[in-house]
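We emphasize that the prediction below concerns an isolated chain of 455 residues; any contacts that depend on oligomerization or on bound cofactors are therefore not represented. The input was used exactly as deposited, without trimming of termini.
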Amino acid sequence: MAHKKYDYDLIILGSGAGGGVAAHYARSLGKTVAIFEKGAIGGECPNFACVPTKSLLHVVHVLETVKSAGKYGIQTSSPTINHHSVKKWKDLVVSRTGASHGVEAFHKDGIDVIRQKAVFVSSNEVEAGGKIYSAAKFVIGTGSKTFIPPITGLEDVGYITYEEAIDLVEKPKSLLVFGGGAIGCEFAQIFSSLGSKVTVVNRSDRILSKEDKEVSELVKALFENQGIAVLTNTGVVKVEKKGDKKIVHFQKDDKEYFGEFDEILIATGKVPLINFAPEKAGIETEKRKLVVNKFLQTTNPHVFVAGDIVGPYLFTHAGNYQSYIAGHNAFSTKKIAPNYKVVPRCVFVRPEVASVGMSELDVIEKEIKYKKGIMALGVLGRANTSNDFDGFVKIITDDKGVIIGGSIVAPRAGEMIHEIAVAMMAKVKAVDLAEMIHAYPTYSEGVKIAASMVE
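Result of the prediction step, given as a token string:
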């Protein structure tokens, strides 16, 4: 039972990846727990981000498969898209996630769910719906929000983010995607495949700039083959309205030009959602981020954080991992620090992009002696049988041959990358993967071949 001084042993702000695991873990310890969530139960991933976007990407995959059926001897009529039915499919997928029954799941485990936004009023108290609640410990998992760049005219002209994009039933004839990261690239491919003329603009010199150069260059080439225009090293100066069109003024080097679009999708990154009056609880912030130690503990020793609000990875799997650690550290004298050495990351374009560990750019920047092996997907028997030749597998090792990173562009790369991730966890050498028997014909043979080519 909670100490009589407090209403709960643990209060959690946010029901998404950053909060849910901590809640159930605390209950396993016999602690009393309350979650405060005014928005959708389960947070962004199942409701607005990961799950709905992957359902739309599956639609795109099916559409492209039908369109190409003729080359395999399957005769089909020209496929048409019913955008209302596509939305129904997306909604069905979302309804089948655990988040759709999140309140019941929390209640079943004895967790109180209070459907109000909570803000701190003291070091151990929050206010929600006009009522004060107290707890011995807190976990903050309020997540993040889309960063909206301060571009002249953007707010007046209007734009959409991924939250609106997943529910559009009338696709724009022309779309500007502002941002070349994972979110921007996934939506660029979705809208392009569904019939929009898409342009991606990115300030940096390449899209997917956190990945290896080979990844960025291949995805850019595949996008351009699909008809997606990719503008790199390009900024947006201002936006204005002209009739039904949105006029976007670009700048590259010293040159300015403009383009006309029906809609603008902002995918320029995310920022922590700090809307709970942290200063009232003695929680310090710096440059719009919470000050946190290696144990995910804020400057208020009773308050821990997890998920997008703290980073460094804005992934659901990273949030779940941190949520467990935050819950553990809240009630244990033997605190543990998260280990981010092996965190797989995926971009679900077609073909998929997946990476883990250090990229070649990382090791060069850190002046680490390294070796690498890279093989083209087209040499694989599975690529031949499936007619999917675009892609590669790349493995990075230290100078002793121990695997420290890898990148894959291939169908099901998100599954394939875990072989490299496990090898990293076990500190396996590339030669060991090269010597292991891999089933034929599979894409995973690419891991074996890339490992054999490390030098």
